[in-house]
Amino acid sequence: MSKPIYLFAFSALFISACSSEPKEETEVVVETQKYAIPIHSFAQPNKAAVTHLNLDILVDFDSKAISGSATYDVVVNAGENRIVFDTRNLSIKEVTIDGMITKNWWLGPLKEFMGVPLEIEVTDNTKQVSIEYSTTEGAEALQWLNPQQTAGKEHPFLFTQSQAILARTWIPCQDSPGIRYTYEATVKVPNDLMALMSATNPTKIDSSGKYNFEMKQPIPSYLMALTVGDLRFAPIGDETGVYAEPSVLESAAYEFADMQKMLEAAEALYGKYAWERYDVIVLPPSFPFGGMENPRLTFATPTILAGDRSLTALVAHELAHSWSGNLVTNSTWNDFWLNEGFTVYFERRIMEDVYDKDYANMLAILGWQDLQHTLEEFADVPNDTKLKLDLDNRDPDDGMSDIAYEKGYFLLRTLEENVGREKFDVFLKEHFTGNAFKTMTTEQFLVNLKEQLLDGSEEKYAELKVKQWVYEPGIPSNVVAVESPLFAQVEAQLDSFLATGNPAVIDTAKWTTHQWLHFLRNMPEEVSVENLAAIDNTFGFTKTGNSEIAAEWYVLSIENNYAPANQAIKDFLIRVGRRKFLTPIYGALIKADPSKESAKAIYAKARPNYHSVSTNTLDAMLDI
After folding, report:
1. pTM of the model
2. Nearest to 226 by CA among 290, 167, 159
3. How far is CA 123 from the centre of its chain?
4. How confident is residue 4, by pLDDT bands cut at 50, 70 and 90?
5. Which residues are catalytic?
């Protein structure tokens, strides 16, 4: 998943002592499989676990519901008589055991943000469990869009967002990242629409409206994905391509022209791509993230279509997840940094290979700036700045901050620069190939790190402050410093502008998006309206089509009461649902008007266009 940047409202109830001691990770065995005890799932895989899903569903846009059956192959340990699934706001119709209808199932008590367990009586000879169900209005994974919310304005659209624990709102499942299974699916949709999943996919609309899918590689439930809409496909390379609405397809294909190069660069670093194809779908703008790493089919926001291929690091990030996250998965959401820190590191190595080191270092410095901002936001919750989290009795979405992404990256970058890139690459390649289609705990990774990368040296392990990085708040003193001569040039030209008030002194002919972001982020806290007007009139920030630059500019404009940007800010918030942009802009509006009246007025119009992932965060910010 692409890196989120947003604010949290935490309760003191969830703040624990700042202990640097690691928690012991309990593991249990089911047949030949090992499972970390689920933290955010009712499933009990030490007793009974799923191995394969056959999904047969109907997508009904009129009722805004998915209905059908989820049939699982299961393994039940000797002497066990229960299998437990996660559900949340699902209507369970009927349960079948090995082809026979059973009445011996029940729904347990509701637990906040987790839903209710579905417990089914089985025997240790049970091979298959089938659950007939339908979704309800509470299916937070689903966003149903009317035609006016799409690019084409003629057809409805549906997409899912299952991470972290929303898969259970559209499929009864064992919804823990530590439980993997293969799947096949039959999906019926309106005849003029295309269905796609995190599996083998069609490239043309089937007039029957019936689509069949297969995912041969085992995945956790958070990587279950479905989208339905008026879609077309364009190939990029032999193993890569892009899906989008017809009016968006050409620009998307142009933007992602380097996808095949990225895939080849990734394979050269850390081994063969394990998922056969790598395609991207550009979703409508209400998608709450930059991207979601669904296997074989990355879901992406249209806000990365800048027209100059300058925001494609997001594609490299989601591609990198094909190794870190999808291939080797965090066992629990407490280990989230193992997915995201590794992916940011891998992403920047891909960008360095496809472009150059200066380009990758600019990304790293912007990431460092984001990390510093998050550390300031989390000053009152220092435990949430640890890499190994403690999310027991909390929504795992609380842990999806820049800490996992950027602190994780800087730990890995620090390790690389201390042991040498060649040795570090050998270690990472073994990490991916040796643990393919398995899960990983923080504790097991640290054992491997010490033994394989540091040759068992306790002295080197201590010198690198690994435990401090992982189990203590903040950033250790041995963090590497990343420099960029290109950013140094930006800073010099910004100083010249601030001294003269004349934008003509700035030479921006070869600037990338990253240089523009650095320029805006390094503006002083207070900027005169005259200076803002001067650079706006010269560079067109208020009217820019680059969402990254626009979001940065809008925050600066709000903070300095630059009225000419007001309408563009409203339009942007109503049109774009990406949480990374929404939270800092709404946050700036709240800071400018603590009554929240102006922010709430915009939100009232914009909220219907947002996914629940975004509204859950914004509702809390705005006291809705």
Report:
1. 0.91
2. 159
3. 38
4. low
5. 318, 405
